[in-house]
Amino acid sequence: MRKPRAFTLMEMLIAVTIFAVIVVSIYSAFQSGIFGYRNIEDALDLNQAAFSSLDRMDTDIRNCFSFSSDDNKFSGDSGNISFLTLANIYEANRIKKSFAFVSYSVKDNKLIRLCRTGSAALNADSAISPEEMVENSGIKFEYGYVQSGRVVVYRNSWTDKKNLPSCVKVTLSAGSEAKARKVFERTIYLTAINEQKQ
User: How far apart are CA 73 and CA 64, in angstroms?
Assistant: First the structure.
């Protein structure tokens, strides 16, 4: 009758090494899958926030109007824009349009939107708080106007009080510095187009 044979130390070390290699491989695959999922989720959240903000700007700027023939209340530079527009407000469980003063800017590395509606629209001292839209962002506005009937010329600021720009080019950069920042760009055309001799 044969004696039961035990494992030698060398066999045990080989078995433990093989088991350790398998466990490390499984852990690495699992960890890279989790990191990949988190990166995709972060990128989707960033894209969603950026596109949502650009859509909101698009609606606000397209509904822009002049306050009067002497002062349109539209002004902007490369980092800020403010204007009068028609905005949706909720009143008595209904959506209705109301005139509003809207401005967009970046403060503390966040894109913010200030919207004063109704009687507070032209009151610069109203206690309405701005809404944060996208974190870790930067913005650049360019203002286009039609020249010679066809050519759209852009400039970095808009101070013309009698005319509105033909379009506004918005460049939104978002994302943290540790990860790659993404740049989103959209050209928003106003309803009323003015031909100007600049």
Answer: 10
pLDDT in tens, 8-25: 888 888 989 999 999 998
Question: Within the chain, where are the H helices?
Answer: 9-62
Per-residue pLDDT, averaged over 135-140, amounts to: 87
Residue type, 175: G
Residue 145 lies in a domain: yes
Note whether residue 9 is domain-resident.
Answer: no
Mean pLDDT confidence for 65-79 = 87
The gap from C-alpha 100 to its chain's centroid, in whole angstroms, comes to 21
> Beta-strand (E) ranges in 65-162?
75-76, 81-91, 94-107, 110-117, 131-135, 137-147, 151-155
Residue 134 falls within a domain, yes or no?
yes
Q: Is residue 88 part of a domain?
A: yes
**Residues recorded for the chain:** 198
The total of structural domains in the chain comes to 1
